[in-house]
Amino acid sequence: MSEFVSIAPDVRLGKNVKLSKFINLYGCTVGDETKIGAFVEIQKNATVGNNCKVSSHTFICEGVDIEDDVFIGHSVTFVNDTYPRATAAGGGLQTEADWKVEKTKVCKGASIGSGSTILANLTIGSHFGWRQMFLFGGLPALLLAWIRYGVAEPVRWQQKEKVIQSLSWWRPLATLFNSTWRRRTILNSLFMLASICGLWAGTVYVPTAVTTLAEASGRVGPQAAHLASYATILVAFATILGCLAMPTLAERFGRRATLAMFFALMFVFIVLTFGKVFYLGSNALPWFFLCLFFLGLGGANFSVYTLWLPEQYPTECRASAFAFSTSFARFIGAGITFLVGAGVRHFGSLGTPVALTGIAFAIGLLLTPLGEETRGRVLPP
């Protein structure tokens, strides 16, 4: 310890650490080649990695973990208590036994600008660079390419391939609306439209709704963002479960009945989740999350089309039927999204407008008995 530098005996300093004057370090760890600016305090159980630069007037509190190659600007303050209090419940000043340190992590290579206040329970930066993330994101495409490479074209397609290639570009589309397939095409497009309404005009508002409810219950900033992320994960997880269950349901109950099950879930839980639970106020979050699971299950209605639509059409227009139904629904669904936005403006809340999108599934349920049941049938030639 010198006249202008206070370093406790329990501080662990790496090699070639550069320390400025007027600093206070105790119980912390500082890595090799790191530079600590003037008027910096680093508390116990805080870690600063190798090759970091901590600029002047910065406060690094207990529970902060800073990895290598991080830049910390001037006057940066870390926080390790979301709800700080001076006194304990029974009176008297708080001690370490009266609160819990909330940790923060700054990942390798991150930079924090001057004057920032870093709240607790955050992870700043990423563990991997963009190259690794790009590679990871491309793995599903590589997997599909590998699966496609090992799949042989069916004999029926090989027999019809030359015939189809000789057709004019408009023939497959025109075939969808001849007397044989017109009814199926119209119904399938309407079914798909109901599904699109539920996705674009319904569940897409889940993060916003959860953030609103979180803030109403006193959870703001990062806590609200975390809850919104968890809600999205929950919906996606439930949808995956529904997709895995779909083939079994479709073979046991039929394609129409399976789609009707998913539509019923969407109708009930869109109306319940956004029309009722959303307006329960500060106590809504647990019930909202419960409803989101079933809303996610209903979201698996899209998987029914991957099985059902190809079974309804002959080879020459099978892909065109799927493409037309999907594109038609997306085009109309974009307009429905604008209507929901206008509803949010009119009602001053997103609950009621999103709940009204359940009407699309009610209509879909009424139309489902009119669909073509294909369970147990041979594919059209």
Model description:
Helix 5 crosses helix 6 and helix 7 packs antiparallel against helix 12 (358-367). The chain has two domains: 1-129, UDP N-Acetylglucosamine Acyltransferase, domain 1 (3 Solenoid); 171-370, MFS general substrate transporter like domains (Growth Hormone, Chain: A, Up-down Bundle). The strands form four sheets. The protein has a six-stranded parallel beta sheet, with no helix packed on it. Strands 3-6-9-12-15 form a five-stranded parallel beta sheet, with no helix packed on it. A four-stranded parallel beta sheet has the order 1-4-7-10, with no helix packed on it. 49% of the residues lie in helices and 10% in strands. The protein has 381 residues and is of the alpha/beta class. It has twelve helices and 17 strands. It has helices spanning 130-149, 155-165, 171-175, 182-200, 206-216, 222-253, 255-275, 285-298, 301-308, 318-347, 351-356, 358-367, and strands at residues 5-7, 12-13, 18-19, 23-25, 29-30, 35-36, 41-42, 47-48, 53-54, 59-60, 64-66, 71-72, 77-78, 104-106, 111-112, 117-118, 123-124. It is elongated.
Q: What fraction of residues sit in β-strands?
A: 5-15%
Give the rounded overall mean pLDDT: 88
The value of Rg in angstroms is 29 Å
CATH class of the largest domain: Mainly Alpha
Number of helices: 12
- How many individual β-strands? 17
- Strand adjacency order, main sheet: 2-5-8-11-14-17
The total domain count is: 2
Structural class designation: alpha/beta
